[in-house]
Amino acid sequence: MTYPADTQAVVLRADGLRFGYPQHELFTDWSAAVTPGVTLVRGGDGVGKTTLLRLLAGVLPADAGQLQVNGIRLAEQPAAYRQQVFWADPRSDALDQVTATDYFKSLPPLYPRFEGRALAELVAGFALAPHLDKPLYMLSTGSKRKVWLAAAFASGAAVTLLDEPFAALDKASIGFVLELLEEAADHPSRAWVVAHYEPPGKVPLAGIIELGD
Prior knowledge:
9 strands; four-stranded antiparallel beta sheet; Rossmann fold
């Protein structure tokens, strides 16, 4: 991984992570330091991009190692750690019976710095207004992903994890996400970790995590 030398700016730190599936070890003694701005997790299919995000989110337990965000360690303060990290699995159907409006209402208690005013702008930017009162199962894959993205950028979380953020989006929404990431690249204290197979447009990157092909 490449990242700026100023270690005081590290938002998320992973030390000695180990994780694997039966007959397939993915991460062995894996460490990284994620600084403010946008960090790219790059690699081909099956190399562990989504698995890594789930590990960083604290929803998939590592076999060994330590994670901390702004000094809050997952092993010692799991609830406080998860309040610092936004993660929504875009492939999950767990919330399919919930409307977008009710999903958004559930977020402020989970993320103390949730930005309600920003959410309104994000809903407009993603053209989600006609879909707010529909259960998520009624939305197209692209619209459902827009709901997750609006929540992600409004969360106020210290670390925001985005898995393939351009998948299934229309051209206008892809452009909107790129604009949001360009703004995120200049943020002084928040970090966005984006899993994708290539750099996102012209977004300046704070670091790159290479997982190979």
